[in-house]
């Protein structure tokens, strides 16, 4: 380590530790430049120092900045997220009356000062009182909202709810926010993709959940498999429901076109889930596919994902599926017996592959969802 700089004001002396543990006195000028003073006891070490110190701006963030960058209760992120829409839960809905007058009551969402959405509006957007932003209610309607900053640093969002004719409503009820729709009251597109994912490494899992929320997935099943490390199933990323919800909420806020969070299901036993719980999240006309990299022996038995979506699992009927369930295995892939179990007549999965390359879980997951989404968009519009 060449030097460690301690905070100092202009025209003051500070001590830095240079190479070979030599202490050197440095004086900062008003311009922020630093020069070695007469107190140096090692001139050669002083000549080796070639650095500039900003007296008021150090590279190391202060404790206050780090505190403000805690985006959620878990605090596992240290950077600000770039959000495209501020989604809030109904739990933050607050009704205020001016001077106790019930007729002048106003409904608004109030977020704490250290909430990651308040941090985004304050530090990234830089909006002041009365300015508008894109907002919405989680699992509800999308709308524009007016920003209002409170004395304690919290942020209030005053929704601008439109009626069917596109005119702002003065007296709206919170029930008007429960229906998933656009600001002009047009229903949101149905979510047609579900993902059954063998649990990957915890850090990878959080990234995948964020991406899947951005891409618009309806259900996410975190399942076990033979090649899944048993420690992954007991990790905080899998067991902590609040942490999972925080990642999904951040992803939906980044997408800006939807308010619905994916529903997460946990399946510690694959066979039990396929037999007991899979029918509960299935819908009529659903296509079930299991992704696995093909080899020379099994490549002939794999189907084309594009043909399955355009024509359906029954190619002779040519009926496109209404919904698709993608089963994506662990880093090492599914075991042959797991593929045989899912592709049995009872469960009805179809094996597919996207090219001859062996992809990692994160790459395969995003690629399959993107391809499926594009094909379903072409089929259903």
Automatic annotation (TrEMBL):
One cellular component term from this protein's GO annotations in UniProt: cytoplasm
Keywords associated with the record: Cytoplasm, Methyltransferase, rRNA processing, S-adenosyl-L-methionine, Transferase
GO molecular function, one term: rRNA (uridine-N3-)-methyltransferase activity
Protein's name according to its UniProt entry: 16S rRNA (uracil(1498)-N(3))-methyltransferase
Entry annotated with the keyword Isomerase: no
Function recorded in the entry: Specifically methylates the N3 position of the uracil ring of uridine 1498 (m3U1498) in 16S rRNA. Acts on the fully assembled 30S ribosomal subunit.
Top-level taxon of origin: Eukaryota
Enzyme Commission number, as recorded: 2.1.1.193
Family in the record: Belongs to the RNA methyltransferase RsmE family.
Reaction(s) the record says it catalyses: uridine(1498) in 16S rRNA + S-adenosyl-L-methionine = N(3)-methyluridine(1498) in 16S rRNA + S-adenosyl-L-homocysteine + H(+)
Top-level enzyme category: transferase
GO biological process: rRNA base methylation
Record has S-adenosyl-L-methionine as a keyword: yes
Compartmental location: Cytoplasm
Domain Ribosomal RNA small subunit methyltransferase E methyltransferase residue range list: 189-372
